[in-house]
Amino acid sequence: MNGALFPRDRAVVAPGAVHVPGWLSARRQRELVDACRGWARGPVPLRHTVLPGGGVMSVRTVCVGRHWQPYRYSRTADDVNGAPVAPFPGWLVELGREALVEAYGEHQGYTPDTALINFYDGAARMGMHQDKEERSGAPVVSLSIGDACVFRFGNTQTRGRPYTDVELESGDLFVFGGPSRYAFHGVPKVLPATADPATGMNSGRLNITLRETGLAG
């Protein structure tokens, strides 16, 4: 954590990939935490995703708008309880557009219809992967609340180097689109005991990613 004496600067990590520290106010973070807690109670509860090979992801996930399971989207959570997912609210569309304006200067007609909400405890990790189940090439908007983490942002060809490690703190915005839309990325480390209770998170990291799937129906 850099603290007030060492302010963090906005950065273009790669072409189309923009990090904006402290974008979300504490009040807005609390509102998002409250909303995520509601979604986590159902109709499809927060859960560990089971991968096709039988492995289980260490993060817990709940979806809004469309349900993600490896490696597709659906309106119902057929791998959990068969229930329809919570609808994607209009205010979340507006938040996504505000994020694009902040990152790129315009929202480009961005209309996200799905949010993947991941909760990391202190031991959770996310391996290097691409977000490529979407038919739309619109940017991904990532919001961080709670404990800080090391976010590894790589290249579009391989899970290995070159990559850049970015420390994401509570309230940070990260947008990746354009040439970086299909870059591999992951979270190799969460930094426990860095959350500010004023945001509604005493421990753990909440990551909300907004996506435009390009899917009909």
UniProtKB/TrEMBL annotation:
Pfam families: 2OG-FeII_Oxy_2. Keywords: Dioxygenase, Iron, Metal-binding, Oxidoreductase. One of its GO terms (molecular function) is dioxygenase activity. It comes from Streptomyces kurssanovii. The keyword Iron applies. This is Alpha-ketoglutarate-dependent dioxygenase AlkB. Residues 111-214 form the Fe2OG dioxygenase domain. InterPro entries: Alkb, AlkB-like, AlkB-like_sf, Oxoglu/Fe-dep_dioxygenase_dom. Its cofactor is Fe(2+).
